[in-house]
Automatic annotation (TrEMBL), chain A:
One of its GO terms (molecular function) is metal ion binding. It holds the Pfam family PhnJ. It comes from Phyllobacterium sophorae. The keyword Metal-binding applies. Its EC number is 4.7.1.1. Keywords: 4Fe-4S, Iron, Iron-sulfur, Lyase, Metal-binding, S-adenosyl-L-methionine. GO terms for biological process: organic phosphonate catabolic process. Coiled coil: none annotated. InterPro entries: PhnJ (IPR010306). This is Alpha-D-ribose 1-methylphosphonate 5-phosphate C-P lyase. Catalyzes the breakage of the C-P bond in alpha-D-ribose 1-methylphosphonate 5-phosphate (PRPn) forming alpha-D-ribose. It catalyses: alpha-D-ribose 1-methylphosphonate 5-phosphate + AH2 + S-adenosyl-L-methionine = alpha-D-ribose 1,2-cyclic phosphate 5-phosphate + methane + 5'-deoxyadenosine + L-methionine + A + H(+). It comes from the Bacteria. Belongs to the PhnJ family.
Automatic annotation (TrEMBL), chain B:
PROSITE patterns: ABC_TRANSPORTER_1 (PS00211), ABC_TRANSPORTER_2 (PS50893). This is Phosphonate C-P lyase system protein PhnK. One of its GO terms (biological process) is organic phosphonate catabolic process. The keyword tRNA-binding does not apply. It is found in: Cell inner membrane. PANTHER family: PHOSPHONATES UTILIZATION ATP-BINDING PROTEIN PHNK-RELATED (PTHR42764:SF1).
Length: 299, 267
């Protein structure tokens, strides 16, 4: 399948999806290993990409290795489809593999994301690719990688719990709000990339395949479908997600992750959904059936 | 009671039994053909000048160095005597975290300096699965009291502590899981004499109260005089004299031990 696709793109000077077939094979092998050991960081031979480290080189390499000509790609950055990083990466894949792209989470087969998990629940058959800046959750406590590998191998995760202890001791609650460490499949400690902890529960038992690519650190890890992802906590300080007092100013959602927007220099602000596709879909639904919604609210 | 138990240690099987232990660094001898036993609740002192192989021996015993030959048998809680050199790395690390304590000469090697005192003490219980913040914290504070650190310093980082406090914190961090054997490498090194005296007093109290066995490596004869039941004197990697502490210090037989004892300054 990919050879025919490669032939199509030969005249552009690029192989299908930019990476050469040998590299894709290598990355796919790492992905299979990562899926077989959920949460385990598999080293891979990361390639130079036409993008600066920190902008999603790991995610791009994973996406390039799993994408086929029939796939529909969605790229989000902080939940939005129209920010620089999302636009650039989407355009990159349009250039190098000519796949169709979408902003709709439901229509996409491959979603590359930075900082968010879409609000619309994912289905079986979808692949969610995370861009990961720092794959090693233990690195803050233990800078030696030889040592962190042993800690993972022997499941010695007391040091991670110490960071939570420190939060409660100093702030009275677990203050970590993003990149919140979680135990995958009851075994490996994983950094879920800098998604807000609001999104941690969405990773649990998700029907979609979740792949994580760290380009600078050259690590790949994965959460297979329907796998447990337990966020660390204490019995007397259980894991909680962020909540907001109001609702989205545009679509009125009370269940989504809200961004605070400053609207002038006198302190006015509004809260809107960070997931633009979710917000736009809700606004369109409300506009097309205003009477139904009003009737629903009355009842 | 403890004193009488020490007079007749025969009924208790040894906690740690070392035989024929050797370690060399190329042609340089670290320690050679060392054999001894430590019984539960007993404090063994190892003295000798710098370079006599004390620290090499301690590192071999505590699993941080692989000896060239010999065996180290440890009486594990659930399995009985086991040669720890045959244990997997996982089991050895687990043993070192639960049943053993290691007090380093430099507290910076044994503490997390950017984690509060409470967190330092709580790490071992949390590594063993403690998940209740309130319990972990009250346990940590109990230990801070035992090592005479003011409770108002619970959330302060050890880098703001004095050397003596850091050393006491390190001891609390090790003893919180109630180990049966503690390795101490120059526990009073680098402390001034009055702080040393308080630390020794504290250590003596804790060791007697908890009944832990300890192996103390030091070059300070006063430390072993106060703490150790038995004494081993090392020179150039070999044990040249051993016996009850008072006996060795008051009536040294080997010329080197005589030199060592006579070179202590009298005030």
């Amino acid at each position: 399948m990919t050879t025919t696709a490669a032939q199509v793109h030969k005249e552009d000077g690029y192989n299908f999806a930019y990476l050469d077939e040998q590299t894709k094979r290598m990355i796919r092998r790492s992905l299979l290993k990562a899926l077989s050991i959920p949460g385990y960081q598999v080293p891979f031979g990361g390639r130079e990409m036409p993008l600066a480290y920190g902008w999603g080189t790991g995610g791009i390499q994973v996406t390039a290795s799993v994408i086929g000509p029939d796939d529909v790609l969605k790229v989000i950055d902080q939940g939005a489809d129209d920010t620089t990083n999302a636009v650039s990466i989407r355009r990159f894949f349009q250039t190098v593999c000519d796949v169709s792209v979408t902003e709709s989470t439901a229509e996409a087969t491959v979603v590359q994301t930075r900082h968010r998990v879409p609000e619309t629940p994912l289905k079986e058959g979808q692949v969610l690719v995370y861009q990961v800046p720092r794959p090693e959750p233990l690195s803050r406590m233990e800078p030696r990688e030889t040592e962190t590998r042993k800690m993972h191998a022997y499941a010695e995760y007391g040091a991670m719990q110490v960071t939570l202890y420190e939060d409660v001791a100093h702030f009275g609650r677990i203050a970590k709000t993003y990149d919140y460490p979680a135990i995958v499949n009851g075994r490996h400690l994983m950094s879920p990339s800098p998604i807000p902890k609001f999104d941690n529960p969405k990773m649990e038992n998700n029907p979609a395949i979740q792949l994580f690519g760290a380009g600078r650190e050259k690590r790949i890890y994965a959460v297979p479908p329907y796998t447990s992802v337990r966020s660390l906590d204490f019995d007397d300080h259980p894991f909680e997600v962020q909540t907001w007092k109001g609702s989205c100013a545009l679509c009125g959602s009370t269940t989504s992750y809200l961004d605070e927007m400053i609207t002038d220099d006198r302190g006015s602000r509004m809260f809107v959904c960070s997931d633009t596709d979710f917000c736009n879909t809700r606004q369109a639904e409300a506009a097309s059936a205003p009477d139904d919604k009003a009737a629903g609210e009355d009842a | 009671m403890t004193a009488s138990a020490l007079r007749k240690p025969a009924p208790k099987p040894p906690l740690l039994e070392v035989s024929g232990l050797s370690k060399s660094y190329g042609t340089q001898v670290g320690c050679r053909d060392i054999s001894f036993a430590v019984r539960p609740g007993e404090v063994l002192g190892i003295v000798g000048e710098s370079g006599s192989g004390k620290s090499t021996l301690l590192a071999c015993l505590s699993g941080r160095l692989q000896p060239d030959s010999g065996s180290i048998s440890y009486d594990m809680k659930d399995r009985g005597p086991v040669d720890i050199l045959t244990l997997s790395e996982h089991e050895r690390r687990r043993l070192a975290r639960t049943d053993w304590g290691i007090v380093h000469q430099n507290p910076r090697d044994g503490l997390r300096l950017d984690v509060s005192a409470g967190g330092n003490i709580g790490e071992r219980p949390m590594a063993l699965g403690a998940r209740h913040y309130g319990d972990i914290r009250s346990d940590a504070q109990d230990w801070l009291k035992k090592v005479e650190i003011d409770l108002s310093r619970t959330d302060d980082k050890p880098r703001t502590f004095s050397g003596g406090m850091q050393q006491r914190l390190q001891i609390a961090r090790n003893l919180v899981t109630r180990p049966r054997l503690v390795f101490m490498d120059e526990p009073t090194g680098g402390l001034d004499v009055s702080v040393q005296a308080r630390l020794l007093d504290l250590l003596r109290g804790l060791v007697r109260e908890l009944g832990v066995a300890a192996i103390i490596v030091t070059h300070d004869l006063a430390v072993v005089r106060l703490l150790a039941d038995r004494l081993m004197v090392m020179q150039r990697g070999r044990v040249i004299e051993e016996g009850l502490t008072d006996q060795v210090l008051d009536d040294p037989h080997h010329p080197y031990t005589q030199l060592l004892v006579s070179s202590v300054l009298q005030v």
